[in-house]
Amino acid sequence: MELALGLVLLLYGLSDILFRFLGLGAYARGSRREPKVALTFDDGPSETTEALLALLKAHGVKATFFLTGERARKRPDLVEKIREAGHQIEDHGQIHQAWKLFLPWVEWRHMAENPGRYYRPPHGLHTPFTRPFARILGKRVALWDLESKDWLDLPPEALAERLLYYLRPGSVVLLHDGPERTLELLKLALPRMLELGYRPVTLDELSPIPLGPRLALIRGLQGFNERYDRTHGLKRVGLGPFDFLKVEAKPFPWPPFKGESALELHLDSERVVELTPFQALRQIREGMKELAAMIERGEIPRPKLLYGFSYQAEDLRVLGFQPWPYPLPPWATRVAALATMWQLWLYRGDLPNWRRPAASLRYMETEELLRRFPPSTPASPPPAPGGGETPPPSGPA
Protein backbone atom coordinates (compact mmCIF):
# COMPACT_ATOMS: atom_id res chain seq x y z
CA MET A 1 0.00 0.00 0.00
CA GLU A 2 2.77 2.43 0.95
CA LEU A 3 4.69 1.53 -2.22
CA ALA A 4 1.62 2.14 -4.38
CA LEU A 5 0.99 5.50 -2.71
CA GLY A 6 4.63 6.45 -3.18
CA LEU A 7 4.50 5.59 -6.89
CA VAL A 8 1.32 7.61 -7.36
CA LEU A 9 2.89 10.65 -5.65
CA LEU A 10 6.03 10.23 -7.76
CA LEU A 11 3.96 10.10 -10.94
CA TYR A 12 2.06 13.25 -9.98
CA GLY A 13 5.31 15.03 -9.10
CA LEU A 14 7.03 14.08 -12.36
CA SER A 15 3.99 15.18 -14.36
CA ASP A 16 4.06 18.60 -12.74
CA ILE A 17 7.81 19.04 -13.29
CA LEU A 18 7.79 17.90 -16.92
CA PHE A 19 4.54 19.44 -18.08
CA ARG A 20 4.00 22.53 -15.88
CA PHE A 21 7.47 23.66 -14.81
CA LEU A 22 9.22 22.77 -18.10
CA GLY A 23 6.09 22.88 -20.24
CA LEU A 24 7.19 19.93 -22.35
CA GLY A 25 4.85 19.59 -25.34
CA ALA A 26 2.78 22.65 -24.40
CA TYR A 27 2.12 25.58 -26.73
CA ALA A 28 3.98 28.29 -24.85
CA ARG A 29 5.78 30.54 -27.35
CA GLY A 30 5.93 31.53 -31.00
CA SER A 31 8.76 32.13 -33.41
CA ARG A 32 11.54 34.43 -32.22
CA ARG A 33 12.02 35.71 -35.78
CA GLU A 34 9.08 38.15 -35.79
CA PRO A 35 8.23 40.81 -33.17
CA LYS A 36 4.77 39.33 -32.53
CA VAL A 37 3.69 38.67 -28.93
CA ALA A 38 0.46 37.27 -27.47
CA LEU A 39 -1.15 38.92 -24.46
CA THR A 40 -3.26 36.31 -22.66
CA PHE A 41 -5.68 36.97 -19.79
CA ASP A 42 -6.68 34.23 -17.34
CA ASP A 43 -9.57 33.91 -14.86
CA GLY A 44 -12.16 36.19 -16.47
CA PRO A 45 -14.60 37.55 -17.09
CA SER A 46 -14.49 40.00 -14.18
CA GLU A 47 -15.44 43.51 -13.14
CA THR A 48 -12.35 44.87 -14.90
CA THR A 49 -13.02 43.12 -18.23
CA GLU A 50 -14.68 46.14 -19.82
CA ALA A 51 -11.81 48.42 -18.79
CA LEU A 52 -9.32 45.95 -20.27
CA LEU A 53 -11.30 45.83 -23.51
CA ALA A 54 -11.35 49.63 -23.69
CA LEU A 55 -7.59 49.82 -23.17
CA LEU A 56 -6.88 47.19 -25.81
CA LYS A 57 -9.21 48.93 -28.27
CA ALA A 58 -7.54 52.30 -27.64
CA HIS A 59 -4.23 50.81 -28.81
CA GLY A 60 -5.68 48.68 -31.62
CA VAL A 61 -4.55 45.46 -29.96
CA LYS A 62 -6.11 41.98 -29.98
CA ALA A 63 -5.57 39.49 -27.16
CA THR A 64 -6.62 36.03 -25.96
CA PHE A 65 -8.90 35.48 -22.96
CA PHE A 66 -8.82 32.16 -21.10
CA LEU A 67 -12.21 32.11 -19.37
CA THR A 68 -13.38 29.92 -16.51
CA GLY A 69 -16.72 28.21 -17.09
CA GLU A 70 -18.44 29.25 -13.87
CA ARG A 71 -17.56 32.94 -14.34
CA ALA A 72 -18.47 32.91 -18.03
CA ARG A 73 -21.93 31.53 -17.22
CA LYS A 74 -22.48 34.28 -14.65
CA ARG A 75 -21.52 37.05 -17.12
CA PRO A 76 -22.50 36.00 -20.65
CA ASP A 77 -22.76 39.68 -21.54
CA LEU A 78 -19.04 40.14 -20.95
CA VAL A 79 -18.21 37.00 -22.91
CA GLU A 80 -20.14 38.44 -25.84
CA LYS A 81 -18.33 41.78 -25.55
CA ILE A 82 -14.97 40.01 -25.67
CA ARG A 83 -16.06 38.11 -28.77
CA GLU A 84 -17.52 41.18 -30.48
CA ALA A 85 -14.27 43.09 -29.92
CA GLY A 86 -12.46 40.45 -32.01
CA HIS A 87 -10.47 38.82 -29.22
CA GLN A 88 -9.82 35.10 -29.03
CA ILE A 89 -11.66 33.11 -26.35
CA GLU A 90 -10.20 29.89 -24.98
CA ASP A 91 -10.73 27.46 -22.10
CA HIS A 92 -9.40 27.91 -18.57
CA GLY A 93 -11.49 25.06 -17.22
CA GLN A 94 -14.63 25.05 -15.17
CA ILE A 95 -13.27 26.20 -11.79
CA HIS A 96 -10.09 27.76 -10.45
CA GLN A 97 -9.60 25.42 -7.50
CA ALA A 98 -6.56 23.47 -8.59
CA TRP A 99 -6.51 21.07 -5.62
CA LYS A 100 -9.78 19.47 -6.77
CA LEU A 101 -8.19 18.49 -10.07
CA PHE A 102 -6.06 15.79 -8.45
CA LEU A 103 -9.16 13.61 -8.73
CA PRO A 104 -9.26 12.30 -12.34
CA TRP A 105 -13.06 12.34 -12.70
CA VAL A 106 -13.19 15.95 -11.49
CA GLU A 107 -10.40 16.97 -13.88
CA TRP A 108 -12.21 15.31 -16.79
CA ARG A 109 -15.43 17.26 -16.16
CA HIS A 110 -13.40 20.41 -15.58
CA MET A 111 -11.77 20.07 -19.02
CA ALA A 112 -14.77 18.73 -20.94
CA GLU A 113 -17.52 21.21 -20.06
CA ASN A 114 -16.20 24.27 -21.88
CA PRO A 115 -15.46 24.88 -25.56
CA GLY A 116 -12.05 25.91 -26.82
CA ARG A 117 -9.22 24.61 -28.96
CA TYR A 118 -6.66 25.62 -26.34
CA TYR A 119 -6.85 24.68 -22.67
CA ARG A 120 -4.81 26.37 -19.95
CA PRO A 121 -4.87 24.55 -16.58
CA PRO A 122 -5.36 26.71 -13.45
CA HIS A 123 -1.86 27.76 -12.29
CA GLY A 124 -0.54 25.56 -15.12
CA LEU A 125 -1.13 22.55 -12.87
CA HIS A 126 -0.65 19.13 -14.45
CA THR A 127 -1.61 15.69 -13.27
CA PRO A 128 -0.73 12.44 -15.07
CA PHE A 129 -4.17 12.69 -16.75
CA THR A 130 -4.04 16.28 -18.06
CA ARG A 131 -2.32 15.59 -21.37
CA PRO A 132 -4.23 12.34 -22.18
CA PHE A 133 -7.53 14.07 -21.40
CA ALA A 134 -6.58 17.04 -23.60
CA ARG A 135 -5.72 14.71 -26.49
CA ILE A 136 -9.03 12.84 -26.18
CA LEU A 137 -10.93 16.14 -26.07
CA GLY A 138 -9.00 17.53 -29.06
CA LYS A 139 -7.50 20.42 -27.10
CA ARG A 140 -4.00 21.84 -27.09
CA VAL A 141 -2.47 22.71 -23.72
CA ALA A 142 -1.42 26.37 -23.78
CA LEU A 143 1.02 27.77 -21.21
CA TRP A 144 3.23 30.89 -21.41
CA ASP A 145 6.86 31.91 -21.52
CA LEU A 146 6.61 35.21 -19.63
CA GLU A 147 4.73 35.83 -16.39
CA SER A 148 3.62 39.40 -15.75
CA LYS A 149 3.65 38.76 -11.96
CA ASP A 150 0.50 40.88 -11.75
CA TRP A 151 -0.67 38.89 -8.73
CA LEU A 152 2.21 40.27 -6.61
CA ASP A 153 1.74 43.32 -4.42
CA LEU A 154 4.31 45.38 -6.33
CA PRO A 155 4.08 48.82 -7.94
CA PRO A 156 2.77 48.67 -11.53
CA GLU A 157 5.85 50.64 -12.60
CA ALA A 158 8.17 47.86 -11.39
CA LEU A 159 6.03 45.18 -13.03
CA ALA A 160 5.95 47.07 -16.35
CA GLU A 161 9.73 47.56 -16.27
CA ARG A 162 10.29 43.84 -15.67
CA LEU A 163 7.84 42.82 -18.39
CA LEU A 164 9.55 45.00 -21.00
CA TYR A 165 12.98 43.74 -19.91
CA TYR A 166 12.08 40.07 -20.50
CA LEU A 167 9.63 40.42 -23.39
CA ARG A 168 10.90 38.68 -26.53
CA PRO A 169 9.59 38.09 -30.05
CA GLY A 170 7.16 35.19 -29.84
CA SER A 171 6.42 35.64 -26.14
CA VAL A 172 3.13 34.41 -24.71
CA VAL A 173 2.50 36.75 -21.76
CA LEU A 174 0.52 35.56 -18.75
CA LEU A 175 -1.80 38.27 -17.38
CA HIS A 176 -5.02 38.13 -15.36
CA ASP A 177 -8.48 39.53 -15.92
CA GLY A 178 -9.46 40.78 -12.47
CA PRO A 179 -6.68 42.62 -10.60
CA GLU A 180 -6.74 46.39 -10.90
CA ARG A 181 -2.94 46.13 -10.91
CA THR A 182 -3.06 44.42 -14.33
CA LEU A 183 -4.87 47.38 -15.82
CA GLU A 184 -2.34 49.85 -14.39
CA LEU A 185 0.55 47.66 -15.54
CA LEU A 186 -0.78 47.59 -19.12
CA LYS A 187 -1.41 51.34 -19.19
CA LEU A 188 2.34 51.73 -18.70
CA ALA A 189 3.68 48.78 -20.68
CA LEU A 190 1.41 48.58 -23.72
CA PRO A 191 2.25 51.97 -25.32
CA ARG A 192 5.95 51.34 -24.76
CA MET A 193 5.64 47.85 -26.21
CA LEU A 194 4.18 49.27 -29.42
CA GLU A 195 6.77 52.03 -29.53
CA LEU A 196 9.56 49.43 -29.35
CA GLY A 197 8.15 47.63 -32.38
CA TYR A 198 6.29 44.70 -30.82
CA ARG A 199 2.97 43.61 -32.36
CA PRO A 200 0.52 42.12 -29.85
CA VAL A 201 -1.70 39.53 -31.57
CA THR A 202 -4.06 36.69 -30.67
CA LEU A 203 -2.72 33.24 -29.92
CA ASP A 204 -3.90 32.01 -33.33
CA GLU A 205 -2.07 34.85 -35.10
CA LEU A 206 1.08 34.09 -33.12
CA SER A 207 1.01 30.44 -34.29
CA PRO A 208 2.54 29.01 -31.09
CA ILE A 209 4.76 25.96 -31.30
CA PRO A 210 4.89 22.95 -28.95
CA LEU A 211 7.98 22.86 -26.74
CA GLY A 212 10.44 20.09 -27.50
CA PRO A 213 13.04 19.02 -24.90
CA ARG A 214 15.49 21.89 -25.53
CA LEU A 215 12.80 24.59 -25.64
CA ALA A 216 11.24 23.12 -22.50
CA LEU A 217 14.61 23.26 -20.73
CA ILE A 218 15.05 26.89 -21.81
CA ARG A 219 11.63 27.67 -20.33
CA GLY A 220 12.52 25.89 -17.09
CA LEU A 221 15.74 27.90 -16.75
CA GLN A 222 14.06 31.30 -17.06
CA GLY A 223 13.69 31.71 -13.31
CA PHE A 224 17.40 30.99 -12.85
CA ASN A 225 18.32 33.50 -15.57
CA GLU A 226 16.15 36.16 -13.97
CA ARG A 227 17.72 35.58 -10.57
CA TYR A 228 21.18 35.82 -12.16
CA ASP A 229 20.30 39.13 -13.85
CA ARG A 230 18.91 40.52 -10.59
CA THR A 231 21.81 39.30 -8.41
CA HIS A 232 24.50 40.57 -10.79
CA GLY A 233 22.74 43.79 -11.76
CA LEU A 234 22.68 43.10 -15.51
CA LYS A 235 21.24 45.83 -17.72
CA ARG A 236 19.87 45.44 -21.21
CA VAL A 237 21.32 47.75 -23.82
CA GLY A 238 18.10 48.74 -25.58
CA LEU A 239 14.71 47.12 -25.07
CA GLY A 240 13.81 46.48 -28.72
CA PRO A 241 12.68 43.03 -29.86
CA PHE A 242 16.10 42.10 -31.22
CA ASP A 243 18.39 44.04 -28.86
CA PHE A 244 20.44 41.19 -27.40
CA LEU A 245 23.31 42.92 -25.59
CA LYS A 246 23.42 43.03 -21.77
CA VAL A 247 26.15 44.43 -19.52
CA GLU A 248 27.32 43.79 -15.98
CA ALA A 249 29.31 46.45 -14.13
CA LYS A 250 32.02 44.75 -12.06
CA PRO A 251 35.68 45.03 -11.13
CA PHE A 252 37.95 43.46 -13.75
CA PRO A 253 38.98 40.06 -12.34
CA TRP A 254 42.54 39.51 -13.68
CA PRO A 255 45.95 41.25 -13.57
CA PRO A 256 47.22 43.71 -14.49
CA PHE A 257 43.83 45.46 -14.26
CA LYS A 258 42.42 43.50 -11.38
CA GLY A 259 39.93 45.69 -9.48
CA GLU A 260 39.57 48.32 -12.23
CA SER A 261 36.00 49.25 -13.20
CA ALA A 262 34.80 47.25 -16.20
CA LEU A 263 31.71 46.12 -18.09
CA GLU A 264 31.35 42.42 -18.84
CA LEU A 265 29.30 41.84 -21.98
CA HIS A 266 26.54 39.20 -22.05
CA LEU A 267 24.30 38.12 -24.93
CA ASP A 268 20.64 37.18 -24.78
CA SER A 269 21.05 33.91 -26.65
CA GLU A 270 17.33 33.42 -27.31
CA ARG A 271 17.32 36.59 -29.41
CA VAL A 272 20.65 36.32 -31.15
CA VAL A 273 20.32 32.72 -32.41
CA GLU A 274 17.38 33.71 -34.62
CA LEU A 275 19.38 36.37 -36.48
CA THR A 276 21.54 35.89 -39.55
CA PRO A 277 25.23 36.80 -39.10
CA PHE A 278 24.62 40.07 -40.98
CA GLN A 279 21.59 40.93 -38.82
CA ALA A 280 23.50 40.08 -35.65
CA LEU A 281 26.44 42.27 -36.66
CA ARG A 282 24.14 45.16 -37.53
CA GLN A 283 22.25 44.75 -34.25
CA ILE A 284 25.38 44.67 -32.13
CA ARG A 285 26.63 47.82 -33.87
CA GLU A 286 23.44 49.53 -32.77
CA GLY A 287 23.92 48.04 -29.32
CA MET A 288 27.44 49.47 -29.05
CA LYS A 289 26.16 52.87 -30.07
CA GLU A 290 23.41 52.69 -27.42
CA LEU A 291 25.92 51.49 -24.82
CA ALA A 292 28.12 54.51 -25.55
CA ALA A 293 25.07 56.76 -25.13
CA MET A 294 24.15 55.08 -21.80
CA ILE A 295 27.68 55.71 -20.52
CA GLU A 296 27.59 59.32 -21.67
CA ARG A 297 24.19 59.86 -20.01
CA GLY A 298 25.49 58.42 -16.75
CA GLU A 299 23.08 55.46 -16.76
CA ILE A 300 26.08 53.16 -16.37
CA PRO A 301 29.19 54.06 -14.35
CA ARG A 302 32.00 54.92 -16.75
CA PRO A 303 34.29 51.87 -16.91
CA LYS A 304 37.92 51.63 -17.94
CA LEU A 305 37.21 48.84 -20.40
CA LEU A 306 34.63 46.43 -21.80
CA TYR A 307 35.32 42.72 -22.14
CA GLY A 308 33.80 39.37 -22.86
CA PHE A 309 34.64 35.81 -23.92
CA SER A 310 33.74 34.77 -27.46
CA TYR A 311 34.71 32.20 -30.08
CA GLN A 312 33.65 34.69 -32.80
CA ALA A 313 36.88 36.63 -32.54
CA GLU A 314 36.90 38.09 -36.06
CA ASP A 315 33.37 39.45 -35.73
CA LEU A 316 34.35 41.28 -32.57
CA ARG A 317 37.56 42.55 -34.16
CA VAL A 318 35.49 44.35 -36.80
CA LEU A 319 33.77 46.21 -33.97
CA GLY A 320 37.06 47.23 -32.40
CA PHE A 321 37.59 44.49 -29.80
CA GLN A 322 41.14 43.20 -29.46
CA PRO A 323 42.68 39.99 -28.07
CA TRP A 324 43.66 40.19 -24.42
CA PRO A 325 47.50 40.37 -24.46
CA TYR A 326 48.14 39.05 -20.94
CA PRO A 327 48.05 35.48 -19.61
CA LEU A 328 44.83 34.21 -18.05
CA PRO A 329 44.30 31.41 -15.53
CA PRO A 330 43.77 28.13 -17.47
CA TRP A 331 40.46 27.52 -15.67
CA ALA A 332 39.01 30.78 -17.04
CA THR A 333 39.33 29.73 -20.69
CA ARG A 334 38.12 26.19 -19.91
CA VAL A 335 35.01 27.50 -18.17
CA ALA A 336 34.38 29.87 -21.09
CA ALA A 337 34.74 27.01 -23.59
CA LEU A 338 32.34 24.77 -21.66
CA ALA A 339 29.84 27.61 -21.27
CA THR A 340 30.02 28.27 -25.02
CA MET A 341 29.35 24.61 -25.87
CA TRP A 342 26.42 24.51 -23.44
CA GLN A 343 24.89 27.69 -24.88
CA LEU A 344 25.29 26.53 -28.49
CA TRP A 345 23.63 23.19 -27.72
CA LEU A 346 20.83 24.69 -25.63
CA TYR A 347 19.89 27.52 -27.98
CA ARG A 348 20.93 26.18 -31.39
CA GLY A 349 21.07 22.41 -30.95
CA ASP A 350 24.75 22.28 -31.98
CA LEU A 351 26.61 19.24 -30.72
CA PRO A 352 30.06 19.82 -29.14
CA ASN A 353 32.60 20.57 -31.85
CA TRP A 354 36.22 20.54 -30.74
CA ARG A 355 37.28 22.06 -34.08
CA ARG A 356 35.43 25.24 -33.30
CA PRO A 357 37.81 28.03 -32.23
CA ALA A 358 38.12 28.24 -28.46
CA ALA A 359 36.42 31.10 -26.67
CA SER A 360 38.93 33.85 -26.01
CA LEU A 361 38.87 37.09 -24.05
CA ARG A 362 38.33 40.23 -26.10
CA TYR A 363 38.37 43.78 -24.80
CA MET A 364 37.91 47.40 -25.78
CA GLU A 365 38.80 50.48 -23.78
CA THR A 366 35.93 52.88 -23.13
CA GLU A 367 37.65 55.72 -24.95
CA GLU A 368 37.81 53.56 -28.07
CA LEU A 369 34.10 52.73 -27.73
CA LEU A 370 33.18 56.41 -27.56
CA ARG A 371 35.47 57.21 -30.50
CA ARG A 372 34.04 54.49 -32.73
CA PHE A 373 30.40 54.90 -31.70
CA PRO A 374 29.85 58.55 -30.79
CA PRO A 375 26.36 58.76 -29.24
CA SER A 376 25.27 61.80 -31.25
CA THR A 377 25.96 60.27 -34.68
CA PRO A 378 25.19 57.01 -36.48
CA ALA A 379 27.44 54.08 -35.62
CA SER A 380 30.84 54.74 -37.21
CA PRO A 381 32.23 52.36 -39.82
CA PRO A 382 35.27 50.35 -38.73
CA PRO A 383 38.67 51.79 -39.65
CA ALA A 384 40.78 50.28 -42.39
CA PRO A 385 42.54 47.03 -41.41
CA GLY A 386 45.51 47.77 -39.21
CA GLY A 387 44.44 51.30 -38.46
CA GLY A 388 42.93 52.80 -35.32
CA GLU A 389 43.10 49.58 -33.30
CA THR A 390 43.16 49.64 -29.53
CA PRO A 391 46.78 49.17 -28.40
CA PRO A 392 47.39 46.75 -25.53
CA PRO A 393 46.74 48.56 -22.26
CA SER A 394 49.90 49.61 -20.52
CA GLY A 395 48.67 48.81 -17.02
CA PRO A 396 46.84 50.71 -14.30
CA ALA A 397 47.62 54.37 -13.93
Which SSEs are present, and which pair or pack?
Blueprint: H1 2-21, E1 27-29, E2 36-44, H2 49-58, E3 64-67, H3 69-74, H4 76-84, E4 88-91, H5 104-112, E5 118-119, H6 130-137, E6 140-141, E7 146-147, H7 156-166, E8 172-176, H8 180-196, E9 199-201, H9 203-206, E10 209-210, H10 213-220, H11 222-232, E11 235-236, E12 245-251, E13 261-267, H12 269-272, H13 277-296, E14 305-310, H14 313-319, E15 322-323, H15 330-348, E16 360-365, H16 366-372
Parallel strand pairs: 2-3, 2-8, 2-9, 3-4, 5-6, 7-8, 13-14
Antiparallel strand pairs: 1-10, 11-12, 12-13, 14-16, 15-16
Biased composition (Pro residues): 375-397
Domain NodB homology: 35-99
Organism: Thermus aquaticus (strain ATCC BAA-2747 / Y51MC23)
In short:
The chain is of the alpha/beta class and 397 residues long. It has helices spanning 2-21, 49-58, 69-74, 76-84, 104-112, 130-137, 156-166, 180-196, 203-206, 213-220, 222-232, 269-272, 277-296, 313-319, 330-348, 366-372, and strands at 27-29, 36-44, 64-67, 88-91, 118-119, 140-141, 146-147, 172-176, 199-201, 209-210, 235-236, 245-251, 261-267, 305-310, 322-323, 360-365. Helix content is 43%, strand content 17%.
Describe the main β-sheet briefly.
6 strands, parallel
Care to count the β-strands? 16
For the record, the CATH architecture of the largest domain stands as Alpha-Beta Barrel
Helix segment count?
16
What is the count of structural domains? Answer: 2
Mean pLDDT: 90
Radius of gyration: 24 Å
CATH H-level name of the largest domain... which superfamily? Glycoside hydrolase/deacetylase
CATH class of the largest domain: Alpha Beta
Q: Report the CATH topology name of the largest domain.
A: TIM Barrel
What structural category characterises the helix and strand content?
alpha/beta
Strand content: 15-25%
Helix content: 40-55%
Q: Runs with pLDDT <50, length 5+?
A: 378-397
Gross morphology: globular
Our measurement of the CA-to-CA distance between the termini, rounded to an integer number of angstroms, reads: 74 Å
Protein name: Oligosaccharide deacetylase
InterPro entries: Glyco_hydro/deAcase_b/a-brl (IPR011330), NODB_dom (IPR002509), Polysacc_deacetylase_ArnD (IPR050248)
Pfam families: Polysacc_deac_1
Organism: Thermus aquaticus (strain ATCC BAA-2747 / Y51MC23)
